[in-house]
Amino acid sequence: MSKHALLVVAHPRPDSLTAQLAERARARLAADGYSVDVLDLHAEEFDPRMSPSDEPDWADLNKEYSAEVRAHMRRVEAADTIVVVFPLWWFGLPAILKGWIDRVWNNGFAYGQRAPRLRGKRMLWLALAAYGEEPFVERGWKELVGRLLRVGISEYCGIEDAQVHFTYDSLGAGADALKEADVALDALGA
Question: pTM higher than 0.85 for the full model?
Answer without folding.
Answer: yes
